[in-house]
Amino acid sequence: MGFRNPAHLAKLAHTVDEMSNGRLVLAVGAGWHEPEFTSHGFPFDHRASRFEEGMTVLHELLRTGKSNFSGEYFHLIDGEVAPVGPRPTSIPIIGGTNGPRLLRITAQLADGWNTDWIGSPDVVPALRAAVDAACTEVGRDPATLRRSACVYIDLPTAKGRFPLPRVDERQPGPQSHQQIIENIHRYKEEGLDEIMLWPDPFTLESIEEVGMLLQQLDRDE
Questions:
Q1: Residues 6+ positions from 61 with CB-CB distance below 8 Å
Q2: Residue 191 burial (CB count, 10 A)
Q3: What is the DSSP string of 92-114?
Q4: pTM reported for the whole predicted model
């Protein structure tokens, strides 16, 4: 959210939705990696507050087409998005966060929630409980918020994504094809509607290997 004015982002969203024939899913987060901000001159301070205001503006513009929001960081006077794309009031908004404050604004305004890279289904229950609690706090039925996660898939030939010997502690380490398939089933059982995969090694061959595993999953369904 900190990389773009939310009103401009809303206009970009309608443009991309038009280009993609109504297939855009707009995922936004507050950001965390300071060099990504400072290297391009974006403010790194008060990221949660900026996200909260930005999400409010974005939601108003994507759901009603208009906004007169006035906050500490964003001010709109007769803000309007026109023309709009094929889904004038229903482009899906996904909030990417695990923090309590941003979970609340996600539960209040977004259509879905996403968590960053995880390596095991074992961590999902605690995350799911936090999302459910945020929904309850803002008076929303938790079942109405879609759930997704970015997931490490460490193939049998995995070597770690960082210069050895450093390995992200969330990486599961090399796994057999059967273990990977079982974990994907478990992600679904734990309530995730969608997972986004990052295979290790990250090569064309490994992507094809993951594709074969997904085909096997389809046959097992």
A1: 6, 7, 10, 67, 79, 80, 81
A2: 15
A3: -EEEE--SHHHHHHHHHH-SEEE
A4: 0.91
| Average pLDDT rounded to a whole number, residues 178-195 | 95
In this structure, are residues 207 and 160 in contact, taking their beta carbons and an 8 Å threshold?
Answer: no
Residue/partner pairs of 60-63 with CB below 8 Å, 24 or more apart: 61/6, 61/7, 61/10, 62/10, 62/13, 62/14, 62/26, 62/89, 62/91, 62/93, 63/89
Classify 120 as helix, strand or coil. Answer: coil
Fold of 6-220: TIM Barrel (3.20.20)
Residue labelled with tokens 């679904």: 188
Domain boundaries, the chain: 6-220
> Is the pLDDT confidence value at 164 over 50?
no
- Burial state string for 118-155 with b = 16 or more CB within 10 A and e = fewer than 16: bbebeebeebbebbbebbeeeeeebeebbbbbebbbbb
CB 79 within 8 A of CB 67: yes
Summarize the confidence of residues 187-197 as an average pLDDT: 96
Burial label for 162, CB within 10 Å (0-12, 13-18, 19+), is exposed
* Strand duo 66-67 + 79-80: pairing: antiparallel
The order of strands in the sheet holding 146-154 is 26-29, 93-96, 112-118, 146-154, 194-200
